[in-house]
Amino acid sequence: MRPQVRPGNPNFSSGPCAKRPGWTPAALSGALVGRSHRSGPGKAKLAEVIARARALLGVPDDYRVGIVPASDTGAVEMAMWSLLGARGVDLLAWENFGSAWVTDAIDQLGLDDARVFTAGYGKLPDLAQVDCDRDVVFVWNGTTSGVRVPDGAWIAAGRAGLTICDATSAAFAMALPWDRLDVATFSWQKVLGGEAAHGMLVLSPRAVERLESHVPPWPMPKIFRLAKGGRLDEAIFGGATINTPSMLCVEDVLDALAWAESIGGLEALIARSQANLAAVARWVEASDWAAFLAEAPETRSSTSICLKLVAPWFAGLDAGGQRDAAARIAALLDAEGVAFDIGAHREAPPGLRIWGGATVETADIEALLPWLDWAHGEVARAARVEG
User: What residues contact residue 196 under an 8 Å CB cut-off, 6+ apart?
Assistant: First the structure.
């Protein structure tokens, strides 16, 4: 039957993600619009973002934290272009974005000594094969597959190489072991629900040492340049951004950071996301048509929660029919105004993807789940009639 209760907030997109509870445009009233980001107040706002993000995430004092262009993508590319090439690299890919970093390392940077470890959607590569005396590039949480690494135990503490971690849908929702990460990147638009286009880059002392001792053989675009005269450009890590940031976006992420602090910090953010995953897990356990795309429970993402359809009627469709059926379910939910933008990523297997980051209320997830059953039933009946 058609459910009667609707989510209070139907925004379940995996990016840009739902705003924090209670957000209104009034949160931006203090933005330095019309002011230079290089003015004293502008620099102070940017430095505040860095300081509060550092404190909230528990980044060690000797790590650098900076704001960089082009969201998480820009931050990952900046790290790869600036740091790779000094030694061999192991590249891990089990979903779309990890595969993009493989393409960039091999096809764009032309790295010869590169090993690639891949797995299909729903699985992780064999992490035991990774050699941490080489550089390692990986995503912590596969945003398009809902598969995450379970922890950092597979990363050697005494490694000689650098670990470069795309943490964009993990930071602020999952515990990151900073002693095992030399580079971490993320954006404001994921777990914090901030606006897009700005990335953050975290560098360990070992990464800084590499940056100051290694000169990449390829041309370096201006927005990727982290060093000047063979030394780290410290200004970037004090709020002097390479290009012009949006001061509206800066104000928005400051509001999100203040909200995160007010509810109890990182521990509370992680707990909220875990509660969202737990709600979906209870529903999946009782479902006869949906399952997690991530096969191993310890690898299931609490942010990008990806579901696959396992009903017999669905399995009987060809690939195009399956993708069309999953899209119909998402379209029905959109038309009802109960869930926006929850179709699986275009590169992923057909299914649904529900964002469960910390800005999403568990009550909204719980209200959504009966609607999933309703929409599935509608599409299944139509498929049987058509068949």
Answer: 15, 16, 71, 187, 188, 189, 249
